[in-house]
Amino acid sequence: MLDALLPRLHGFEILDPVQRRPNLAFVRVPKGELFSLLGLLRQQHGFVTLQTIGCTDWIEDGVFCLTYLLEGAARERCLGVQTWIGRDGEGLATAIPLWPQAEIFERELHEMYGIPFDGHPSLGDFMLEGWTDTPPMRREFDTLKFVEETFVMREGRDDNLDVRDEIRKRKEARKAAEAQAKAEAPANAEAQPETQTPPGAGDTR
Question: SS in 3 state form for the chain?
């Protein structure tokens, strides 16, 4: 797919083209060229569907990698267009004018990563009503600490037990019960009274 497509994208700085399989490929472009390329792919090259907008948090490099996953009308090919933005408040323009479904994807990215999208009509609460903590999909967010501080009512409940520890305890209890049953088996056998056959019970004449 890239062999046919890339020569037709002249004027764009493609930083990292990758062909994963014949109908799936990825290209990475600078932020400043992202929407020109997306518009060209939408209007002239048949990528009419935006499947999703993904985000990878490269906290070590201080950036997010955003991936716009595009698909042809017949679902015969899929292209991921990636770009980098800074993690500290850098945003992007909304993709709603190209794909209306971007509204939901961008709301989720805003809530989960804190990414602003210029021109988006509604970046308020989406799934996390009243959330005031660090966006929960950012890697600096401490999920365990948040749960321990927020959901104290779970202490002592069965659904708050360590699963591996509970499995180990149950295996040990089962083995102990089996060993005890085996040890008691001879004693139980000795305690059984011998059954005597009544006189004549075996006579079939």
Answer: CHHHHHHHCCCCCCCCCEEEECCEEEEECCHHHHHHHHHHHHHHCCCCEEEEEEEEEECCCCEEEEEEEEECCCCCCEEEEEEEEECCCCCEECCCCCCCCHHHHHHHHHHHHCCCEECCCCCCCCCCCCCCCCCCCCCCCCHHHHHHHHCHHHCCCHHHCCHHHHHHHHHHHHHHHHHHHHHHHHHHHHHCCCCCCCCCCCCCC
Which residues, 6 or more positions from 21, have their beta carbon under 8 angstroms from its beta carbon? none
For 129-148, write each residue's pLDDT tens digit: 889 899 999 999 999 888 88
The CATH class, in words, for 2-127 is alpha beta
85 and 28 in contact (C-beta within 8 Å)? no
Domain ranges of the chain: 2-127
Tokens standing for residue 195:
């059954």
Q: What is the pLDDT of residues 147-195, one digit of tens each?
A: 888 876 656 676 667 888 889 999 999 999 999 988 888 776 666 666 5
